[in-house]
Amino acid sequence: MSDVVTLERQGAIAVVRVNNPPVNALGIAVREGLQDSFKAAEADPQVKAIVLVCEGSTFIAGADIKEFGKPPKSPGLPEVVSGIEAGSKPSVAVIHGTALGGGLEVAVSCHYRIALKSAKVGLPEVKLGLLPGAGGTQRLPRLVGVEKALDMIVSGNPISASEALELGVIDELVEGDLTAAGIAYAEKLIADGKGARRTGERTDKLDGVDNAALVAAKRAEVEKKTPGLFSPQRCISAVEASFTMPLEDGLKRERELFGECLVSPQRSALVHAFFTERLASKIDDLPKDTPVREINSAAVIGGGTMGVGIALCFANVGIPVKILEVSDEAMDKAMERCRDTYMMSVKRGSLTEDAMNKRLTLVEGVTDYADLSGVDLVVEAVFEEMGVKQKVFEALDTHCKPGAILASNTSSLNLNQIADFTKRPQDVVGLHFFSPANVMRLLEVVRGEKTANDVLATAMAIGKKLKKVAVPVGVCDGFVGNRMVFQYGRESEFLLEEGATPAQVDGALRKFGMAMGPFAMRDLSGLDIGLSIRTRQRQTLPAEFKLPTILDKMAAAGMLGQKTGKGFYVYEKGSRTPLDNPELPAILEAASKEQGIERRELTDEYILERTLFALINEGAKILEEGIAQRSSDIDVIYINGYGFPAHQGGPMFYADSLGLDHVYNRICEFHKQHGAWWKPAPLLEKLAKEGRKFADL
Ligand code: 3H9
Known about the structure:
By secondary structure, the protein is of the alpha/beta class. The chain contains 28 helices and 19 strands. It has an eight-stranded mixed sheet, sandwiched between helices. α17 (about 455-465) links the parallel β16 and β17. Bound molecules: (S)-3-Hydroxyhexanoyl-CoA. (S)-3-Hydroxyhexanoyl-CoA binds near residues 58, 62, 65, 124 and 134.
C-alpha cells in the first residue's frame, strides 16, 4: 500500500483514506493507492462495503495538474475509476471541501455519495482547457440528465452540496466526523441489503428527452459566447457521446477528445494561468515566518464609487468598515451608494435582501478622523492629486493608532512620497483596487521603499481574505497594469490615425479574446481620464515621444464616451450598445492629414502586433526594473485586471509562445518606423538573442 492512500477495516467496512496534501490531487501514488486498496477490499471476504474518505481540508480536488504534459504513468485515472465502479461491494464516497474534476469522477464511480452541507462538487476541467477525462462526461449525464450535465461541464462552475442532493449527485447530507458518517451510511446499506449501484449502467435520465436538441442549443450558445475557445465544444461532443453510444464507446470518445484538449496551446496557457495566480502571492524576498498583523476592522477615506466599492469588499467578508467623508451630506450619499450597489446584486439574484441588510450593518459612515482611532487598516480612496493625499495622510498619522496599516488606493502617484507625509512610512502600503472594486479580482499591492515586511505580508493576506488576486508591485508611474496599458492605448490611437476604425481595432482584439476592445473600454471609463494623463505626459515627455491628438479633438467636440452618449461609438439613450459614430471619420481623417499620414488598410494581425507588442515591450522594462517580481505576475495582472484572455496565458506568456526573437524583430521594425516609443527593452533584446524566454528568468 502507498503512503498517501491507506486501507483499514472496521468490522465489515473497509475504509480507504486518501492523504495527499494540499488538495488530495490524483497523482500517480494516489491512483495506485486507490486501485490497490479497492482491489484488496474487494478480495477480502470479511469486507461487505467500502468507504472512501479524505484527510485535510478537502475531498480529492482533481487530477494532479502538474502531471499534464509529462509522459503518462499507469494506472491512468479512467482505469482506476472503472475498476471502482465495477466492484461488487457497495462503495460510499464521503465528500467534504470540494470534489472537483477527477475527484468528482472518483466519487461518481463509487456507488453512493454522502457529503457535508458545506461541500461543493463540480467538473472545472474546461477552465483548464480540458474536459472531464475519466468518465465525467459519460457518468454525470446518466446521473443528472444531459441538460444539467452540459451546464456543469461547459461552465465548469461547482454546485453546492444541497443542489447536488436535489439533483441526485449526492444521496445524503451528513454532519460531524467524516469516517463515522461514512461507516454509519455503509452499515445501513448492508442492513438494507443494498448492493453495488453503478452510475454507468443507468439510462433512465437519458431516456425520453430530446438530448440532441439540448446539445445543439448549447453548441450555439458556446459559439456565440466563447467562439475562440477550444475545449467547450469538445466538452459538448463528449457529452453527446453519452446518449449516442454505449458506455464503453462513449468513454473511448471522451479519451480521444480529452487527448485533443491536452495537446492544445490553450490548455498550456490556462494551466499557466492557474499556477501563476497562486505563485503571484509568494514574495521571494519575504521570509516565510514574517508575522501578519491582525485586521479586524477597516476604514475607507472617500465615499465615491471607488471608496464604496472598496468598503463593500470588507463588508462582504464580515469585516466592519467605516467610510469617512467630508460632510454629513456626502456621507449620506456614500451610504446610499452602498445600498444601491448591493441592490444591483439583489436584483440580479446573486444576493438576498437579508444578506444585504446584514452586510450594511457592518458599514458605518463617519465625518471625523478621530472616529478612525481604533481601526486596524485604512484605505485612502480620494481624488488623485498629491496635495489632497498629503492632507489625508497627515490626518491619518495624527489620528490612527500605532500599528494601524495606512494604505493608498492611488493608481499612479508616487507611494514613497505619500508614505513620507507620515511619521510612520513603514506602515504605508499601496492597495490598488480596480473598478468596480467590489467586482474586479485584481489587487496590486504596492510595496514602497520603506514598507515594513509585516505590513506587506498583511496586505497580501488581506487581499486573499477579500477574495482578490493580490500581486505585489513596485513603485513607478502606473505601477504594472496602468503603466503597460498607457502603451497599449496610445498605439491603438495611432492605428486610428493610420487608417483603422475603432470597430476594426476592437474587433481584432476581441477576436484575440480580450474581454473588451480598447475603444469600447475608453468610452466606458470616460475619455477625460486618458486626456488628463496625456496632458500630464505632454508636459513631461521629451519631444521625440509623440502623442496622438485624437482624444483632444474628440473632447473638443464633446465626445467623452458613454457619459455623453458619444465617444468612439455612439450610444442610444439608456443603451450601452456601441454603434458607429458618424462624426468620427472626419475627426480621424483630420488627424491623419495633420500628421501627414496617408490612411491605409490595416490587417488584424498588424493591429494585434502594434497593440500587444507595445504591452510586451513595456512588460520587459518593468521586469528589468524589478517593478514586477516575475513575468508570470504580469500575466496574472493582465488576466485578472485588464480582460486579457486566460487562454492566451497573459502578455508575457503570449510573447514566449510566439518566440521572443520574432517579437523583438518586429519591435525593432516598429522602432524604425514609429520612433522612440518602440525602443526595444534591453531585457527583451538579451533574451531574444540568447534564444530564451521570459519564463526562463
Ligand atoms: C482533472 O481532474 C482532469 C480529469 O478529469 C481527467 C484526468 C484523466 N493539482 O487554490 P489553492 C495546489 S483536471 C495539483 O491555493 P484553495 C495549488 O497549486 C483538475 N495541485 O487552495 C496550491 O499549491 P501551492 C480539475 C493543485 O484552498 C495548493 O494546491 N480540478 C491542484 O484556495 C492550494 O491551492 C481543478 O481544476 C491540482 N488539481 O482552493 C481544481 N489543485 O500551495 C483546481 C490545487 O504550492 N483547484 N493545487 O501554491 C482548485 O480549484 C483549488 O485549488 C481548490 C482549493 C478549490 C481545490
